[in-house]
Task: inverse folding
């Protein structure tokens, strides 16, 4: 629109571009409503019904109120509430993978963006660390299953090099199975986190780093006093998305432990629990109830992380506040 | 003007799409696409080799793994949509295993073979017909094989442990569980394993159960035979007569190589080609170093049935396939000679059993057809439920943790019951 045009329309106070904004975001909302919101509401609705298949016969749907939820939280004969056990498993598995994931990703992001280190061949490294994320999780799990089986190459190496005289059964111990799952999740996701954190760091004004260095701050101090506070919005975003992904952890333990979550279901996650109800008998009632619980847990944990971390770093300087506001939108 | 042109073009496009997608009128009542659901490539191989597909018909194989009930899930979805599916998308034929055939036979999703004009031949084994028949005696399909299962042993190890590798003599030394366990101790003393998986003998016991997994009120029940299997396996694991891996694991399969240390396996005729690839390996294998005998208990294992899906528009082809794999003697003979199968045709069986020149190269010249034919009389079709596959699979996987020593027996059984509660809400567990 040229200046002339604007003066012609001078009587109008301003041209409203807002409607174009709404039109452009409309497709997203349509897709969201059809593919996410409606199924979500239906899931909640289904969780109040008995509805499953017995072989080829359909049982229900019959309204049962909160019965599905009650049975999920009823202790079994051994006195444990299984869904809580599986929720704890899920969080442990996520935590074991997420801690190294964020530490390594932060470190790499700082290295790659440091104007002092000025690392060569960044494109190559960034591609390589991102690679594991491109492999299908199930294929990756099959690979690990074969590698660490009792007759797999890892055991062959351990025996031939004299470290072990008997093959080690990696899938018989809680510690090894959980470590393997954590290792795989770490390998698959640290590249992704690195890239996002790097983008966050590159968004920080370089002059701040230079100023801090001139003031005599060493690298560690710069990291904790400048980089980390200013990176916090992006960091929290990464953490919450990783947390949501972690709560929904399924494919890696499912394939690696052949659906069993062995030993003794100590690596059995919430979604594997859900899948057990859903896969054979199409039990929409029970799996719906588990979904709703997962949804609530996700909401609560996401809220806690957000409150806790963003409260600590409130407005250290004027500039990042604007940046944070932008990120929130 | 531009608008007009674009509207006209759009209309033209629509018209052309509609005309293209209009189905060509069927030339006769038979469909042009034949859809088969299966859980592995075994039958597909036989089908492609020995069955000539009528001209103009495309055969679609939809293959999903059986493990964890995936095959049943996918098949169920397709069958439930059968009524609304287009003719060419309908399931025409599907394969089913002994563990769950009842679920499909006793449903409206299969059709009686009389509806496609096929009649069971009297050369077929009785139990294969019973398995494919519903409560009213309507037969819904056929099997191309009969699956008496035998004890498959390594001749060289048997010679070392028992002093003989002659099937009759070996059988005399292994014809009860007491003898089997005693020999296991001897084998162990000489550095061998009796079996290569904790679940190797599971089918032998479970096939001799006197009651089904669930009673009429759907209460889960443990047959004394299952308890006997658990007790024996405890002993075998404790004494290291067997390995703690599953029956399909690589660790077990490696025992079939020439340098394997395991004496006994259990399996029917399909086991040789389908599961003993390592033994047949030209370099690392030990072809010819094997033989079969009945073992401690008569039993059968598995079997693949071909079922006619209700709503199929390829009835003539269905009939043709059924005939090819059951009454066509040439095909049945090829199944024996080239595929090491035990056919569902007594006439062909007799021919091979009485042929002094016939012997299996894999079994060191032993006439496997003759040996298996002596076991067929013991096969009874009883005590099956629709839940057998998942129950058998889950019991083994839950107890494996107990046998490995990760959990105690009660915990393992509690996990088994939990798995049942999750999978089959109707079954009442202890």
Result:
């Amino acid at each position: 629109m040229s200046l002339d045009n604007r003066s012609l329309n001078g009587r109008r106070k301003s041209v409203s571009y807002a409607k174009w904004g709404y039109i452009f975001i409309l497709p997203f909302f349509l897709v969201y409503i059809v593919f996410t919101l409606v199924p979500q509401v239906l899931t909640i609705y289904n969780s109040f019904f008995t509805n499953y298949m017995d072989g080829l016969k359909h049982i229900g749907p019959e309204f049962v109120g909160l019965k599905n939820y009650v049975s999920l939280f009823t202790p079994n004969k051994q006195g444990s509430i299984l869904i809580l056990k599986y929720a704890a498993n899920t969080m442990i598995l996520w935590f074991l993978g997420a801690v190294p994931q964020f530490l390594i990703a932060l470190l790499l992001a700082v290295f790659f963006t440091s104007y002092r280190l000025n690392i060569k061949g960044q494109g190559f490294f960034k591609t390589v660390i991102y690679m594991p994320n491109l492999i299908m999780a199930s294929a990756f799990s099959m690979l690990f299953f074969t590698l660490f089986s009792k007759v797999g190459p890892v055991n062959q190496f351990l025996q031939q090099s004299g470290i072990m005289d008997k093959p080690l059964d990696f899938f018989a111990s809680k510690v090894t199975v959980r470590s393997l799952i954590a290792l795989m999740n770490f390998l698959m996701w640290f590249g992704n986190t690195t890239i996002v954190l790097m983008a966050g760091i590159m968004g920080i004004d370089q002059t701040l780093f230079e100023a801090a260095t001139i003031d005599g701050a060493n690298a560690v101090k710069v990291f904790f006093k400048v980089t980390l506070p200013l990176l916090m919005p992006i960091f929290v975003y990464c953490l919450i998305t990783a947390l949501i992904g972690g709560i929904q952890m399924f494919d890696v333990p499912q394939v690696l432990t052949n659906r069993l979550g062995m030993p003794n279901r100590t690596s059995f996650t919430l979604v594997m629990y859900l899948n057990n109800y859903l896969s054979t008998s199409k039990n929409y009632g029970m799996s719906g109830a588990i979904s709703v619980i997962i949804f609530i847990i996700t909401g609560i944990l996401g809220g806690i992380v957000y409150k806790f971390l963003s409260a600590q770093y409130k407005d250290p300087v004027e500039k990042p506040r604007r940046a944070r506001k932008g990120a929130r939108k | 003007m531009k608008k007009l042109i674009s509207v006209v073009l759009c209309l033209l496009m629509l018209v052309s799409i509609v005309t293209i997608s209009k189905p060509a009128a069927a030339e006769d009542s038979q469909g042009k696409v034949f859809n088969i659901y299966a859980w592995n490539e075994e039958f597909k191989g036989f089908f492609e080799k020995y069955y000539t597909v009528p001209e103009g018909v495309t055969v679609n194989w939809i293959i999903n793994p059986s493990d964890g009930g995936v095959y049943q899930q996918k098949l169920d979805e397709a069958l439930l949509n059968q009524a609304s599916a287009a003719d060419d998308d309908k399931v025409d034929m599907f394969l089913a295993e002994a563990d769950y055939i009842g679920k499909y036979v006793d449903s409206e999703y299969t059709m009686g073979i009389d509806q496609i004009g096929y009649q069971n031949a009297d050369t077929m084994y009785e139990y294969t017909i019973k398995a494919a028949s519903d409560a009213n005696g309507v037969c819904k399909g056929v099997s191309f094989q009969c699956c008496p299962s035998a004890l498959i042993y390594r001749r060289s190890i048997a010679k070392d442990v028992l002093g003989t590798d002659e099937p009759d003599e070996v059988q005399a030394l292994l014809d009860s569980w007491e003898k089997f366990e005693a020999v296991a101790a001897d084998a162990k003393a000489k550095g061998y394993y009796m079996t290569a998986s904790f679940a190797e003998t599971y089918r032998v016991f479970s096939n001799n159960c006197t009651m089904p997994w669930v009673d009429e009120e759907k209460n889960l029940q443990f047959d004394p035979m299952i308890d006997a299997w658990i007790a024996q396996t405890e002993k075998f694991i404790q004494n290291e007569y067997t390995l703690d891996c599953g029956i399909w694991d690589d660790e077990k399969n490696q025992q079939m190589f020439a340098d394997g240390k395991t004496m006994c396996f259990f399996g029917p005729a399909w086991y040789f080609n389908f599961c003993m690839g390592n033994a047949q390996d030209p370099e690392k294998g030990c072809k010819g170093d094997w033989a079969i005998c009945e073992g401690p208990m008569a039993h059968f294992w598995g079997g693949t049935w071909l079922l006619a899906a209700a709503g199929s528009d390829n009835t003539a082809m269905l009939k043709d396939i059924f005939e090819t794999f059951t009454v066509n003697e040439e095909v049945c003979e090829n199944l024996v000679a080239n595929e090491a199968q035990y056919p569902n045709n007594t006439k062909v069986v007799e021919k091979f059993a009485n042929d002094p020149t016939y012997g299996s190269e894999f079994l060191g010249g032993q006439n496997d057809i003759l040996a298996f034919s002596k076991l067929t009389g013991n096969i009874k079709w009883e005590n099956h439920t629709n839940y057998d596959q998942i129950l058998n699979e889950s019991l083994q996987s839950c107890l494996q943790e107990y046998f490995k020593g990760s959990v105690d027996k009660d915990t393992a059984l509690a996990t088994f019951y939990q798995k049942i509660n999750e999978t089959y809400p109707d079954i009442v567990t202890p």
Observations:
- The beta strands of chain B are 33-38, 58-63, 93-97, 141-143, 148-154, 264-267, 290-293, 299-300, 304-308.
